[in-house]
Amino acid sequence: MKKVLILGVNGFIGHHLSKRILETTDWHVYGMDMNTDRITELLEDDNYKSRMHFFEGDITINKEWVEYHIKKCDVILPLVAIATPSTYVKQPLRVFELDFEANLPIVRSAAKYGKHLVFPSTSEVYGMCHDEEFDPENSELICGPINKPRWIYSNAKQLMDRVIWGYGMEGLNFTLFRPFNWIGAGLDSIHTPKEGSSRVVTQFFGHIVRGENISLVDGGAQKRAFTYIDDGIDALIRIIANKNGIASGKIYNIGNPINNYSIRDLAGMMLTLAAEYPEYAEGAKHVKIVETTSGAYYGAGYQDVQNRVPKITNTCEELGWAPTTTMADSLRNIFDAYRSQVAQAKALMD
């Protein structure tokens, strides 16, 4: 019966992971976050109250609580991070302070108390790598010039990976996982109309619901390998279980190489699907696809990656895992999940 500490338990990965743990294992979840909107159902479910332990707090303030619970728990997942490109460009120091500086004491405590640290790296560490598939053990990590602050996120995460690896050389039990464009319900709020503030699927979905134009940055030719959240959580559960220590000291890409589509393709797929739903069809009729530049959309400090495909050989072989959700099913699941929220999203137009 593991005790799993999830910092950022109300976040996209955090709330999906907590739900899966409570539904399918006998593990206890100890969670901290500043909000509870995504985990309200779990907190109120009588079946889970004995195993779902929540504290409302901030990792940068409630440091004693964090250290105490690292000491108390078996597996530590520090999921608190800024992961929105507009913030990388406009507030790079905020990204560094939270994603690196605030997480470093957590890493050190995990090493101090001999815990299994399961840390969220990112597909962004590969940067503008030229490999057809990004290999966690061999691919070069290539970032742009300093005057492109977009790379602060990639660099902060990469430095943390290297620090964790260094602690591993001194005995830390760690696993680094690199999510490749995980998508699903609860990724961001669809009620956030501010451009560049949310991840691309949610951004497009919000525009469709509100009948607004979809902007393709630099033509939308850049590709991403999209991964449905349930597939990602499947892999994470196996990492946390860590049967026979298989995941210790490893780096895993968690992604779906088959779901590799351009952003332009994504916009087309989402508009076609929206037309099938009475709730979304009217809004979708008003949407036009327009092109913009990355400078106009994000600011001058932005650079993009044209292709980002994960090599998942070791993830599949060692964890006995494989992604199974198609792109069509992933998008349909998202559209289904938000059917009851359409009226609220449209109210933003008033």
Encode the helix/strand succession as letters: EHEHEHEHHHEHEEHEEEHEEHHEHHHH
Please estimate the helix content.
40-55%
Mean pLDDT: 93
Total domains, how many? 1
How would a textbook summarize the main sheet?
7 strands, parallel
Strand order of the largest sheet: 3-2-1-4-5-6-11
Uncertain runs? none
Number of strands: 13
The CATH superfamily turns out to be: NAD(P)-binding Rossmann-like Domain
Give the C-alpha Rg: 20 Å
Number of DSSP helical runs: 15
| Shape field | globular
> What gap, in angstroms, lies between the N and C termini?
50 Å
Q: What characteristics describe this protein?
A:
single chain; about 350 residues; alpha/beta; Rossmann fold; seven-stranded parallel β-sheet; two-stranded parallel sheet; 15 helices; 13 strands; Bifunctional UDP-4-keto-pentose/UDP-xylose synthase; NAD(P)-bd_dom_sf
Question: What's this, in brief?
Answer:
The protein has one domain: NAD(P)-binding Rossmann-like Domain (Rossmann fold), CATH 3.40.50.
What does this protein look like?
- With 350 residues, the protein is α/β, with parallel strands linked by helices.
- The chain has a single domain, classed as Rossmann fold (3-Layer(aba) Sandwich).
- It is globular, with a radius of gyration of 20 Å.
- 46% of the residues are buried.
How does the SSE layout of this entry go?
Blueprint: E1 3-7, H1 12-24, E2 28-33, H2 40-44, E3 52-56, H3 63-72, E4 75-78, H4 85-90, H5 92-101, H6 104-112, E5 116-120, H7 152-169, E6 173-179, E7 182-183, H8 200-210, E8 214-217, E9 223-225, E10 227-228, H9 229-241, E11 250-254, E12 260-262, H10 263-274, H11 278-285, E13 289-292, H12 294-297, H13 313-319, H14 327-337, H15 342-346
Parallel strand pairs: 1-2, 1-4, 2-3, 4-5, 5-6, 6-11, 7-10, 8-13
Antiparallel strand pairs: 9-12
Helix pairs in contact: 1-9, 5-7, 6-7, 8-10, 8-11, 10-14
